[in-house]
Amino acid sequence: MTALAQRPTDAQPPGTLPDGIDAHRLSERRVVPLRHPLRWVITGLVLVLLLNFAQTLFTNPSWEWEKVGVWFFSPPILKGLQLTIIATAISTVVSFFGGIVVALARLSGNPVLTTLSSFYIWLFRSVPLLLVLVFLFNLGNLYPEIGVGIPFGPQFTVNTVATLTPLALGVIGLSLSEIAYSAEVVRSGLLAVDQGQHEAADALGIPKHRQFTRIVLPQALRSIVPAYVNQIIGLIKASSLLYYVSLLDLFGIAQNLGSTYPTDVIPLLVVATIWYLILTSVIAIVQYYIERFYARGSVRVLPPTPLQRLRKALGWNRAKVSAA
Amino acid sequence: MSQAIAVHNATKSYGDKTVLRGVDFSVEAGTVTVILGPSGSGKSTLLRAINHLEKLDEGFVSLNGELIGVRVKGTRLKELRPKDILRQRAKIGFVFQNFNLFPHLTILENVTEAPISHGVKAAEARENARALLARVGLSEKEADYPRQLSGGQQQRVAIARALALDPDVILFDEPTSALDPELVGEVLAVIRTLAGSGKTLIVVTHEIGFAREVADRVVFMDEGAIIEEGTPDQVLTRPAHPRTQDFLSKVLA
Ligand SMILES: Nc1ncnc2c1ncn2[C@@H]1O[C@H](COP(=O)(O)OP(=O)(O)OP(=O)(O)O)[C@@H](O)[C@H]1O
Ligand SMILES: [Mg+2]
C-alpha cells in the first residue's frame, strides 16, 4: 500500500489523465500514431537482400537471358506446354464432375454407395500419383483386353494398348487421383450450406435435382472454388510426373532438351519456370472473377474489380464519359 | 365451413423423448389459428409435421381430405416417394423463423424459383412475383439480394415467396421472433392482410396482442399435447387451465 502510494505515476494505468492538464486543448490536437521502428528495419534488410539477388540476374552470365528468349517460344517447348495444358484441362473438368459424383455418393446415405466412395477416396489419396501412372502404363500387361459385360455372360471388349493412347492413360491417371481430392473439396462445400436452405427448398416443393443445381451447388461453390483452384494448381505441377511415363509435357521437354544441349540447362529451366508462373497467374485471374461471381448476395456490396479500380484511379468513370 | 387441415393422433418421439403425444386438431378453411405454448412444447414439430418436413411415428395429416406424405396401403399408412411429397407441398406454404431466403438469388428470383420449378413460364412467374412483392410493399427491392434487406423486409419477401405457389394453407413458425421489436409490426401487418383473404393460416407466435386481434382460434400446447383451445377470448382472457394461466402471466408480464 505505502509503496504504491509513494510512486503514484508509475502505478497508474497508461490511459490516466495527468493532473493539471488542459483536457480541452489536449482533445483538439491530432493523435500521434504508434510507430513501428522494427518493421522498418526488417523491410530494409529484405530489400537489400532482394536487390542483391536481382543484381545477380543481370551480372551472373550463367542465366543466359538471350537463350531464354530463344527457347521461350521454340516449337518443342510450345508442344510440351500444349500437352501440359491439355492434360491438366481435361483432368480438371473430369475430376470436378467426378468429384461431385463421388461426393454425392458419399453423402447419399445409401450404405453401398457411401462405402464404395469412401473406399475410392481412401485408395487414391493413399497411393502416390506416380505409382498410379506407372500402374496404368502397365495395364496392357495386366489386362490385355478391357471391356464390360454381364458376369459369365456376353462381353464387349477392346484391346487395351491399341485403344488407350499414352495421353489418355495419363489423363485417366491424373483424374483418378484428382477425383479423390476434389470429392472431399466438394463434400465439405456441400456440408457448409445451411440446413435451412434445404428445408426452405423442400417446403417449396422444388424437385430434388433442381434443389441441387439451383440452390445448394451455387452456394457450395463459394467455398468449393478457392479450394478447387488450389487443386488445379497442384494438378498442373503434378502433370510434370507424366514425364516418367514418357509423355513430354513442359517439364519433360525442358528436361530432354537439357540433355541434348547441356550448355542450355539453366535457361531451359528458367523457360519452364516462367511458363508455369504464367499458367498459375492466368488461373489466379480467372479464380478472382469466378469467386466474385459466387460472392454475389453474400456481401452487401461487391468490391470493385481490378479493372474498375484502375479506371477509378485514372478518373474515367462512366458519368464523365457520358457527360463528355 | 369445411375443414382445411385435419391432424389425427400426431405422435412423435426423438429417442425416448416424446415430443407429440397423439395430437388431434383441425382447422377450418379460411380461418386463422394461433398456436401458443412454452418453449419445447412441440409447436414447431407439429407445424413441420403438417407439411411433412417432420415425419410422424403415428397419426396422419390431411389437407382438404388428401393425406399428406403418406398413403393407405392395406390397413396401414405408407410413406410416399419424395417426388409426390414435394408436389403436395406446393399447396402448403411455410414461413420460417430465420426467413431462409436463398442468399445467392435476387429478391425477384427468390419468389419466382418455386413456380418456375413447378412448370410456370418464367415471364408469367415474374409478373406474378412483382404483384406479390407490391403486396408486401417491396417492389423497389426486386433486384437486391436478401442480405441487403432488413430482417423485416426479408421476412416479407419470405411471405411473398410462400404465396407464389398460391397455397391453400400457410404455416408460420414464429415469423417475428428473429426480428428487432420495431420490425415486428410490419411483418404482422402483412400477415393480417392475409387473414380474411380466403387463405387458411396457422401461426406459431408469442405475440399475444396479434393473437387476440387476428386469430379465429387459439390453441395452447404444453409437453406435446393440446391442453386448451377456443376463441381468443376464451383462451387468452379467461383461460381454464392453470398451465395456460401460468404461461400467459409470464408472457404478458
Ligand atoms: N431433431 C431433434 N432431435 C431431438 N430432439 C428434438 C429435435 N427437434 C426437436 N426436439 C425436441 O423436441 C421438443 C419440441 O421441440 P419443438 O421445436 O417442437 O418445440 P417448440 O414448441 O417449437 O419450442 P420453441 O418455442 O422453443 O420453438 C424439444 O424438447 C426439442 O428439444
Ligand atoms: Mg419452435
UniProtKB/TrEMBL annotation, chain A:
Entry membrane topology: Multi-pass membrane protein
NCBIfam families given in the database record: HEQRo_perm_3TM
Record's keyword annotation contains Transmembrane: yes
Cellular-component GO terms for this entry: ATP-binding cassette (ABC) transporter complex
Protein name: Amino acid ABC transporter permease
Family, similarity comment: Belongs to the binding-protein-dependent transport system permease family.
CDD domains membership: TM_PBP2
TM helices/strands, residue ranges: 38-58, 81-107, 119-140, 160-181, 224-245, 265-290
Recorded GO MF terms: transmembrane transporter activity
Annotated stretches, region: Disordered: 1-21
Domain ABC transmembrane type-1: 77-287
Presence of keyword Cell membrane: yes
Listed InterPro entries: AA_ABC_transptr_permease_3TM (IPR010065), ArtM/GltK/GlnP/TcyL/YhdX-like (IPR043429), MetI-like (IPR000515), MetI-like_sf (IPR035906)
Main localization of the protein described in the UniProt heading: membrane
Record keywords: Amino-acid transport, Cell membrane, Membrane, Transmembrane, Transmembrane helix, Transport
Compartments in which it is found: Cell membrane
GO BP field: amino acid transport
Automatic annotation (TrEMBL), chain B:
Segments forming domain ABC transporter: 5-248
Recorded catalytic activity of this chain's protein: a polar amino acid(out) + ATP + H2O = a polar amino acid(in) + ADP + phosphate + H(+)
Pfam families hit by this protein: ABC_tran
Enzyme Commission number(s) of this protein: 7.4.2.1
Compartment(s) where it occurs, according to its Swiss-Prot or TrEMBL record: Cell membrane
Gene3D superfamilies: P-loop containing nucleotide triphosphate hydrolases
Keyword Cell membrane: yes
Protein name: ABC-type polar-amino-acid transporter
Classification lineage: Bacteria, Bacillati, Actinomycetota, Actinomycetes, Micrococcales
